[in-house]
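agent> Task received from the user: take the single chain below, predict its 3D structure, and emit structure tokens. No templates, no multimer pairing.
agent> Plan: (1) validate residues, (2) run structure prediction, (3) serialize to tokens, (4) report one or two observations.
agent> Step 1 OK, no nonstandard residues flagged.
tool_call: predict_structure(input=
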Amino acid sequence: MDRKIEKKKGLKRKHIPYIAGGVLLLAALGWMIFGNHAAKYRVERDKVTVSDVTSGEFNDYVRINGQVQPISSIQLSALEGGVVAEKLVEEGTMVHRGQVLVRLTNPNMTLNILNSEAQLAEKQNFLRNTQVTMEQDRLNLKRERLQLETDVTRKQRRADQFAKLYEEKLCSREEYLQAAEDARVAKESYNLVRERQKQDEIYRGIQVKQMEESLHNMQQNLMLVRERVSDLDIKAPVDGQLGLLEVEIGQNVGAGMKIGQINVLSDYKVEAMIDEHYIDRVRPDLEASFERQDKNFGLRVRKVFPEVRDKQFRTEFVFSGERPDNIRTGQTYYINLQLGQPQRAIMIPRGAFYQTTGGQWIYVLSKDGKRAVRREITIGRQNPQFYEVTSGLQPGERVVTSSYESFGDAQELILK
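)
tool_result: status=success, residues=416
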């Protein structure tokens, strides 16, 4: 009869992978609980830059590049429109105030002048004719007055004669009354002529004055039109250097159109672009300096422009003392702009580490110099040579100031 075979108890081959996985999991958990979490990075000592933390006078300034510019530039614009007939000077030429730079032509303006002259001549002729007519009327009225004055004298004398005759009963009453009435009518006619003469003189004076004013206005208008012709010659408004002239022969230039500029070289200024990081600290009257020809020259902030472009803002400087020899427009000066007074501070040299950490942490060397541990710090002001450290470091310590790009997230550096 068949006998039942019993299965052997114990560890079998198929259980080995599960057991090994459990052991590895326990080992990982143990390392996470009891192990050292700090990532370490080994680096050769001569591949990093080690700098000392020092205490000293921190000079609060920034280094910027500035370009020399004329103290001011005057725009050239055409007062009257026209076609460019001549260019009398070229760019870069020194010009004097009133010097003709460009000549324009405008046929329409010439036609306007001819029309204005014709109207003026017509108005002058009309005024002369009116004056002649008025003078004739005045003379005729004066003659009429003289005749009436003589008539009054004669009729008054006749009336007086008839009055005496009537008293002596030598003439009739009707003759006496007619003579008196003729004298009275003659006097009234004379008075009417005198009144008309006065009114005519007033009216004639007003009319002549109005016509003379009209004639004067036309003459002024003609003068203005002729002055506009002189404005076709574009002249230099100031002494200086012609820096730009954007016209060509035959070009049609509109009234008010900008055609160039004149640089006033009586003095110079320096324009610089500064990082927006300093926009709250740069203000007018701050002092600056630069070195040239083995001498230091002083500058002063003249104007700070509020607009920021490409993370920079524009600033103007003027000289506060002597100017360099052979100064030229467009020259570049390397300027030290003083932002504040020197103060005692903890400092570290500038380095590439700042691009990685943003000044929030740094690697600090141990006393034996064999390792460097990451530490949080706070950086305040900075100048072209040093960072000011406000917390996290003490004088005498040493730090790594070279680039951290290859270190990743390492908490500790092992220096070989």
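agent> Step 4: summary for the user.
The helical segments are 16-34, 107-167, 173-230, 353-357.
agent> Done.
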